[in-house]
Structures are given as C-alpha cells and as structure tokens.
Design a protein that fits this description.
The strands form 3 sheets. The chain has a 5-stranded antiparallel β-sheet with strand order 2-3-4-8-7, with helices on both faces. The protein has a 3-stranded mixed β-sheet with strand order 1-5-6, with no helix packed on it. It has a 3-stranded antiparallel β-sheet with strand order 9-10-11, with helices on one face. It has helices spanning about 5-15, 35-45, 105-115, 160-170, 175-185, 190-200; strands spanning about 25, 50-55, 55-60, 70-75, 75-80, 85-90, 125-130, 135-140, 145, 215, 225. The protein has 2 domains: about 5-140, no CATH class; about 145-225, no CATH class. α1 packs antiparallel against α2 (about 35-45), α4 (about 160-170) packs across α5 (about 175-185) and α5 (about 175-185) crosses α6. It contains 6 helices and 11 strands. Helix content is about 30%, strand content about 20%. It has about 230 residues and is α+β, with helices and mostly antiparallel strands.
C-alpha cells in the first residue's frame, strides 16, 4: 500500500483524543459520538476527505491519502433506555479475535490468517498502523464498494459466469454471482474453490455480511471484500 504518511498523521492529530466511549448512538440518524466535531476536524486538514461510518468503525476516505482509507474501531454504542429515558453505554462484543470488542482488529487478524493460506487476495489488505490513547488505528487498501459502482467496466467471461451461477444454485455462497465470476477470471477456479471452502468451513464470518457495501473492486479492477469482520453487536 502506498499512502501519504504526513496527511494520515495530520488527520489523526486533528481528531485525537477521541471520547473514551467512542461509538454510535442508536437513534434515527445512528450518528457516532461527537461525529460532527470529528468530521470538521478532518475537513480542516483535508477539505476533500469523506468521513463515514459503519456499525462498528469510523472510516476516513480521501484521494489525497493514497490507495488507503483510515479505519478506527468504535468500542461500543449508546442505546436509549425505554424505562428511564436515558442513554446507556454498551461495549461491543463478538469480534472474532484477541479483542472481541475490536472489529477492525478482527479484520487485520483474518487478513493475516488468509495470507498463510495464500488467499489474502480476496480481501482488502489491512495494516495495524499505530495505537493512540488505547485506540488502534488501521489502514486498509482503498476499495470501491459494489453499491458505489454504477457501471462495472469488467464483464466476466461466459464460462466463469456459468460456473458462478451453478455454484450459487448449489448454495456455495450468498453473494453477487458476477463478483464471484470476476474472481474466477482473476484468480482461477481452483483458488476460488479453496477460498469458498475456507469461508464455509473455517471462517464463516468472512462471507456472513456480504451486502453491496462490503465487497467491491480495487482500482486495478480486481474483486475483493472490504468489510469482513461480521459485526454482531
């Protein structure tokens, strides 16, 4: 991964320290704690940046960063008590790794494990960049989510499309068959079979949450999964 070291550090300096209870508030807009303040701090450093989030992490995207995005895990969420009418903080759990509250760390560990099997090409490369005030900061290679692709210039071969459709009928995966067909063309049938076997038998979390925002294509048009930690709560 090639990235702008100085800009990454300037953004991190601008947004830290983060609140000790850093996460999302379960309300109609589902906004992270102090999100507007964090967003403004990032924009002050890089007006072209985009600050977004999922259920378990903050994500900072900018073409000026290079071919990476910054990911910072939440440590939980606020939920409103219906009886007391107050916000109650709940820490995350269920992440598959050494820290069950850190879904970014789970991705990093899954990437390392896939690497030992020679299957890391199927997921976005994730780097543990540094730790600041008890928060781990990760860099992940930039991937365009399928939901953001209005025109996919790479059409799979008829043979790969047919195989992918047959596999889909056999319930070998629950993901867009064209994406699997693209994998067949790029990585080969043997390697894709090995990856699907790994996901179905060794680590089901990787393909457990494959909506169109969690998989897509690198800038070189190779298919991969960008969110593979399977947030559960």
């Amino acid at each position: 991964m090639v990235f702008n070291y100085n800009l990454v550090n300037k953004i991190l300096e601008a947004i830290f320290p983060l609140p000790e209870e850093f996460g999302v508030v379960e309300n109609e807009i589902n906004e992270p704690v102090h999100f507007s303040t964090i967003q403004q701090a990032v924009f002050d450093v890089d007006p072209t940046a985009r600050v977004c989030h999922g259920a378990s992490k903050l994500v900072i995207v900018s073409s000026k960063l290079g071919d990476v995005v910054i990911k910072i895990p939440f440590n939980g969420y606020y939920t409103e008590s219906k009886d007391a009418g107050e916000l109650i903080w709940t820490y995350f759990y269920g992440a598959d790794g050494q820290d069950e509250s850190d879904y970014c760390l789970a991705e990093y560990e899954k990437f390392q494990q896939l690497k030992t099997y020679g299957l890391n090409c199927f997921v976005a490369k994730t780097l543990l960049y540094k730790k600041i005030n008890n928060f781990r900061v990760f860099l992940q290679e930039y991937v365009v989510p399928k939901e953001d692709i209005y025109y996919n210039g790479y059409c799979p071969s008829p043979k790969s499309q047919k195989i992918a459709e047959e596999w889909y009928k056999q319930k070998m995966f629950d993901i867009d068959s064209q994406w699997i067909a693209n994998c067949l063309d790029k990585y080969g049938e043997s390697k894709v079979k090995k990856f699907l076997f790994y996901c179905n038998n060794i680590d089901p979390d990787i393909l457990a949450d494959t909506h169109s925002g969690n998989y897509g294509y690198r800038e070189n048009n190779t298919p991969c999964i960008l969110d593979y930690s399977n947030f559960t709560g």
